[in-house]
Amino acid sequence: MNEFLIGYARVSTNEQDLTAQRNALEALGVRSNLIYTDHGLTGTNRARPGLREALAACRNGDTLVVAKLDRLARSLRDAKDIIDELTVKGVKLSIGGSVHDPTDPVGRLLFNVLAMVAEFESDLIRARTREGMQVAKAKGHLRGKQPKLSTAQQRHLMEVHRAGTHSTSELAELFNVARSTVYRTIQRQSVDR
């Protein structure tokens, strides 16, 4: 029976490039036509077509190859689901050239430890991002979405609204914005008074 090396690569954003991962997989012996990819999908999203195809391509005795564990899974639950599927199929997992047999107790332990580290790293990234956003907000650099109307336009809208000569729909049409923008502006201006 022929045993194949099936490769999987993933990048989280559309701006990122898969070339480095593809090169790493080919250097590990994976043929280019057996590399499955996902572009612009996070590791926490299990609905990844490339991963689904890679797992479907794996047969008993094959090895699923990833350049790094975080390319495969970013949560312990996801990693466990993937390793359970590989175990049922009799497929080994190679992470950067280190092969782990999920049917072997030591291989399973190593994989679970690596999966916990990947999840921990993901949690740290989220925490640092939230912390950075709080600092930016405190410094006034993170202000959220800017209003559709300038300050002068908001003032004019409020004057017309207070005159009672136009309905909300008419105000939206007059200022070329959605009705929700008119409602938000009225609400914001009422609170600011």
UniProtKB/TrEMBL annotation:
UniProt xrefs under InterPro entries: Homeodomain-like_sf, Recombinase_CS, Resolv_N, Resolvase-like_N_sf, Resolvase_HTH_dom, SSR_resolvase
Domain of life of the source: Bacteria
SMART domains attached to this UniProt entry: Resolvase
UniProt domain Resolvase/invertase-type recombinase catalytic: residue ranges: 4-140
CDD domains per the UniProt record, alphabetical: SR_ResInv
Keywords tagged on the record: DNA integration, DNA recombination, DNA-binding
Tagged with keyword DNA-binding: yes
DNA-binding recorded as keyword: yes
Active-site residues, Swiss-Prot/TrEMBL: 12 (o-(5'-phospho-dna)-serine intermediate)
Pfam families in alphabetical order: HTH_7, Resolvase
GO molecular function: DNA binding; DNA strand exchange activity
One GO-annotated biological process of the protein: DNA integration
Alphabetical list of PROSITE patterns matching this protein: RECOMBINASES_1, RECOMBINASES_2, RECOMBINASES_3
Recorded family membership: Belongs to the site-specific recombinase resolvase family.
The protein's name in its UniProt record: DNA resolvase
